[in-house]
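FAQ

Q: What does a record look like?
A: Structure on top, sequence underneath. For example:
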């Protein structure tokens, strides 16, 4: 009683009047006179608020009736102002001469403990529920994983297997016990798509175990049971502290796809080989045709040169003996043999070019003077068609490396075309100027006419071998469609380029760009016209041979 560890009170029986009490007991009750002196002599109903009808009342009655002690735990009492309380309480009857004289009552307030236990219980319930939910999710997840068409392996941070789903078990060789990630390496060989063996350290799962995210590694797998291809990805999973906890390795069988693409690749290869063979045959055929063309052209050329020389001799020696009529016939013979010669020469150049036997022979010449002399030399042809031919240059002189013979043919071809496709009374102009293209100094030669023009869709075609705009339409003059093809080739082998602007009915401008570069040579800065005078006369006659004035 004095130690105040538990509340103790003694009530007299049967009136239940308090005869002895300690402070602990009074403190426990919601009792206004919680002084020991004032409480002695009060009945239990006065001391315990709303005592009658409570569980405490019922217990007391039972004790008095049964005359046996009672120990009750955690009795709930709701009638105090301070709210719900819980008590552990004992009732012990004290006998005198065989009759109950007193009842000893102990109480200890266990509200805090009970509430704490209730809290824990509630928490446990929540945990239990969460556990249940988790288990449910786990089952669902396992169900999903198990039925995935993708093979899935989970391992812990040391690489120990946690789970392998059905597809994984199906693909991996099963006859030995696999404990750690990568154990399959003992019986299974892994190769990359180039056929190189993949080392243990480079297996996607092992790489992920070191923290790497590995995606879509295609592997050829050979185990004692089967051979197949897989696409393997592996990812490390970390906890909130950043520690690696799990490695997930996923893979699926791509054997069908690989086989299919191998098949296609094989077919493509075969097709390519067949195509190559076809091309080879075609190439050989073209070469043969070119050889034949070259042979024939040579054969044509010899008698033609003889005919040409004979005509020249006749003109020189027998000029006075010939009648005008005979001179007319002779003229026709000369013009036509020149046409033949033009064709033969062009064909020979093309075949030489195709066979790679073509040589460029650059010498340093004054391109301005050279161009002017070529342009002026054909004034006579222009005049016959009443075409005004003019030449202008922004440069006075420009010495540079040019293959004069090829340049002469380029310009003569462009000029003969300009005159050929320009109606009488119109004009043809040749312009020369300097231009910087991609930081490089170039000389630019333009041949412009007011002729029939070239439609857009034919602008590329005319630079092709035998390319003509319209065979019937252009029949106002003869031609073979080889000239521009050769011109383009000549320009390109000289390191230049050719361009065309044209509008139907308005005219055309052919532009040639040649690099301004000097060549190393035993410099001959001679007057090109002088050296090549005879050649120019001949070239002119040949180039203009298919225009009938
Ligand atoms: P050819 O003149 O011998 O037919 P080219 O290769 O020199 O061969 O010319 C190819 C074609 O390009 C010509 O047939 C003609 O249709 C067209 N062509 C070339 N130059 C001109 C031009 N200045 N004006 C209009 N058409 C042209």
């Amino acid at each position: 009683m004095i130690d105040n560890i538990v509340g103790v009170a003694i009530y007299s029986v049967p009136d239940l009047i308090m005869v002895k009490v300690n402070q602990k007991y009074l403190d426990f009750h919601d009792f206004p006179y919680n002084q020991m002196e004032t409480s002695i002599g009060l009945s239990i109903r006065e001391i315990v608020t709303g005592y009658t009808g409570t569980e405490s009342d019922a217990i007391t009655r039972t004790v008095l009736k049964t005359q046996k002690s009672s120990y009750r735990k955690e009795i709930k009492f709701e009638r105090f102002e301070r709210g719900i309380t819980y008590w552990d309480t004992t009732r012990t009857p004290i006998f005198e001469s065989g009759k109950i004289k007193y009842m000893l009552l102990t109480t200890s307030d266990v509200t805090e403990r009970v509430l704490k236990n209730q809290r824990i219980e509630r928490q446990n319930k929540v945990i239990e529920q969460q556990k249940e939910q988790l288990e449910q999710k786990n089952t669902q997840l396992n169900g999903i994983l198990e039925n995935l068409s993708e093979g899935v392996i989970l391992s812990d941070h040391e690489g120990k297997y946690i789970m392998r789903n059905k597809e994984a078990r199906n693909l991996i060789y099963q006859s030995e016990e696999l404990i750690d990630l990568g154990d399959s390496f003992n019986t299974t060989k892994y190769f990359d798509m180039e056929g190189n063996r993949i080392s243990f350290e480079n297996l996607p799962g092992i790489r992920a175990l070191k923290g790497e995210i590995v995606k879509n590694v295609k592997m050829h797998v050979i185990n004692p049971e089967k051979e197949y291809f897989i696409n393997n990805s592996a990812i490390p999973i970390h906890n909130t502290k950043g520690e690696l906890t799990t490695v997930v390795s996923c893979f699926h069988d791509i054997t069908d796809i690989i086989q299919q693409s191998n098949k296609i690749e094989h077919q493509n290869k075969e097709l390519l080989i067949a195509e190559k063979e076809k091309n080879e045959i075609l190439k050989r055929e073209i070469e043969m045709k070119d050889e034949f063309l070259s042979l024939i052209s040579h054969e044509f050329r010899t008698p033609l040169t003889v005919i040409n020389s004979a005509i020249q001799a006749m003109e020189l020696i027998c000029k006075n003996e010939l009648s005008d009529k005979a001179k007319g016939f002779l003229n026709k013979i000369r013009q036509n043999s020149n046409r033949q010669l033009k064709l033969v020469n062009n064909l020979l150049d093309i075949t030489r070019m195709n066979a790679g036997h073509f040589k460029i022979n650059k010498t340093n010449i004054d391109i301005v003077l050279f161009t002017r002399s070529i342009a002026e030399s054909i004034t006579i042809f222009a005049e016959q068609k009443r075409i005004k031919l003019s030449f202008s240059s922004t440069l006075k002189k420009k010495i540079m490396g040019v293959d004069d013979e090829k340049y002469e043919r380029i310009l003569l071809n462009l000029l003969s075309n300009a005159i050929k496709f320009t109606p009488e009374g119109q004009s043809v102009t040749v312009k020369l100027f300097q231009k910087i293209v991609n930081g490089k100094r170039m000389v630019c030669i333009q041949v412009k006419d007011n002729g029939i023009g070239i439609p857009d869709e034919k602008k590329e075609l005319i630079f092709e071998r035998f390319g003509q705009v319209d065979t019937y339409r252009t029949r106002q003059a003869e031609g073979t469609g080889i000239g521009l093809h050769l011109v383009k080739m000549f320009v390109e082998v000289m390191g230049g380029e050719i361009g065309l602007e044209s509008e139907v009915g308005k005219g055309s401008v052919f532009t040639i760009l040649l690099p301004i570069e000097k060549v190393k040579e035993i410099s001959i800065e001679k007057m090109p016209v002088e050296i090549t005078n005879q050649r120019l006369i001949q070239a002119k006659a040949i180039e203009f041979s298919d225009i009938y004035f």
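Q: Is there anything notable about this one?
A: The chain has a mean pLDDT of 88.
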